[in-house]
Amino acid sequence: MIKNESILTIIVCTALLGGCASIMHGTSQEMTFQSSPEEVTVTVSGRVIGKTPVTSRLDKKSGQSVAFSKDGYKPVTMELTTTLDPWFWGNIVLGGFIGSTTDGINGSVNQYSPSQYFVTLTP
Question: Using one digit for the tens of pLDDT, what is the confidence trace for 94-107?
């Protein structure tokens, strides 16, 4: 009887964790973009987010690009780099297949690194 209660407790705890990275850091991250000169248009994966200096909350997705453009200057485009959120390993250690799957599906397994970009445009 005690063995069944212990197993049930472990299953319930694992399910309640949801996803360690999801709970600890969420599915989006604050990103800051600055430039020289200022007032440069910042576009992330085809969506204009504002003019520099700008801080915006972006969904954590791998494979996104950021473009900086301003009339009279050469545009700059680069990939937003992501790394594995260390909290993802909390799911593995705690045996949370459900949590790790959740983190993978909703993007919280990723984190942007760096979270701040500074670009100098050339005329």
Answer: 555 555 555 555 55
